[in-house]
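User: structure tokens for this one?
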Amino acid sequence: MIQKLILIFIMGLSLSLTNDHLTQKNQQVLEDQIESGFIFFGEQSFYGLNINTAPGELRFRIIKSGAFRVFLIESEINDQIKTLAGLNNTGRFIAAQTLLNGTQSSVDINYHNSFMLNFLTNDNITNIPQWLATKENIQRLSGEKYLAAVLPSQGGIIEITDTTYDFFAGEDNFEVLLPIPYEKYTVKQTDQFDGPYYYGMYQFLEFEILENINNPNLNTHFAMAHRIKNNPTDSVTVLFSPYRNHIYITINNDPSKIWMINVDGATIETYEGFDQLHKGNLPAIGITSKDLSILNFSNESLMVGIIFATIVILMIIGVAVFVNVRRQNKDKRAG
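Assistant:
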């Protein structure tokens, strides 16, 4: 018990230093929207992402491709749509991140989007390394890394360079996505970009995931993800439940209000933290992170007031139309 408390204290101190230093580094990593992520396979498997919305708002949408329903998270930056992450209805998952090296990424966005969509819609993927071996011109994605998962328990990190690619299979039924080379996850670095804060992040996530790998409580996993946010005021945290095909979303630094998207039914609803359940179909064009931050169903009296005002306005218009029609009919009879 004492050892556990000591480890929690060390992790908390490390993350406090991490957040302070990351605030100073924010401009350097702003272009990369996915800050961190994780996957773990337990009694109820989960995938998670922290996404920075400052460079561009996110769009959540569902498409149908063959036998697959695919949930996508996309962002528009510099007039280009980039796919950031996706989950299909079989629980297959992929998320993209740019390796942190202080330079502007020059990845072919069209090829990147095609690469991710192929992973989510290919009928024959049962083994990630075998699928990677079939991909031609993968060096066009140099500088990118991907967190990929295939149920029931296969997942890992794909890192791509100018000359080759590597797949690092997750151990202990989990894996973590951070914007540094995989080989540096467990090494304390001191250079400009690979500072010790990422080492602290990895240690924290490893401890929390292994402690809660069979814990079905969403709030526990959201609390873990929120602890390592770089930009909490312009961000979205997403948890994916691959067996249920549910996506849970919190906006900015408020983990108490949770939205849920159902991939199978293509619906969105207020899942937790709102006064009443509101549920509707997800539009074909999707819904944006800005939409979710503006929508507020917690203030029920406000919503009732808006609905009542709308009804009154419609009644006034209806009465005016009715009076006008009667007057026109009377004038016709008089004429």
